[in-house]
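Problem 3 from the worked examples.
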Amino acid sequence: MEHLAAGLAATLRPGNAVLLAGPLGAGKSTFARALLRAACGDASLDVPSPTYTLVQTYDAPGLVLHHYDLWRLDGPDSLAELGWDESRAGVVLVEWPDRLGALAPADALRITLEPEGDARRLTIEDGRKPSFFEKQKPSAAPHLRQPGAL
């Protein structure tokens, strides 16, 4: 999972949104932590879960990332006071994106994590243009394929 997060971190640009969905314990925070450490270029970066602070901000080379955990929100009404609109100028990384409602960006990178025994299944839908998959050279990431690709 860390390799995938690092690969995705390298493709992030200001204005991107990464939405992490899945049940409690599926690995959303683990994935977010790996992505943030890779984006910031610091494998030992302290990345606390923003479950109680709701948002944590990180300065990375060339961009600012805002990590939201919306578990405790009922819906999008509180996002304005959390600086959602301002955060969209950087990269937003959102756990529990169902709480965004209509504010969920249509062009987001959506990652759904589902536990399967001792493993996890990740489903990726990339609304960005060009997508992560279009940017990858087949030799650089042979284990990553677009849905439906053989």
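Problem 4, a separate protein:
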Amino acid sequence: MVNLGGLLAQADRTEEAESWLRHSAGGGHTNAMHSLGVLLEQTGRSEDAERWCRRAAEGDHTNGMYNLRLLYKVGGRSEDAEHWWRRAGEGDHTKAMYNLGLLLAQADRVGDAEHWWRRAVGEGDTEAMVNLGVLLKEGGRSEEAEPWLRRGRGRPRCRGRAGRAGERR
């Protein structure tokens, strides 16, 4: 039922998708809860979306945690948001690790940001490599930063940031 709901959503048959996903989610299926939350957010029903993403997150669904965090970020509830990105990161959700690093760096919690970017790097996240390199370089650890920046220079999405960091002295 979850797969059918997903296929219907991709085909823009939103009402049918929602019906199938609600049926599965009501039966405790966390993938359906998450998918329903995403579908509801896409159709402008943020309150319902938050409720279903929260249920998925409480069922240890890391994508549910991640998306709940995005809903909180948009709503300006950063304390709740950090909690869910941290939980998703602890569940090995790479995007959550990367974004938690950003959130922590913006809050000037550099040591915590470094920790989460290192975890994301361990999962192969090239943008985290660049951010880690920039963080290390700005912290006076240029020698340690250089390999991360060098790896990022070859990646299309990272090339500019890595190059600019490499030029700083």
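Solution to problem 4. Confidence is low (pLDDT under 50) at residues 159-169. The domain at 1-88 is CATH 1.25.40.10 (Serine Threonine Protein Phosphatase 5, Tetratricopeptide repeat).
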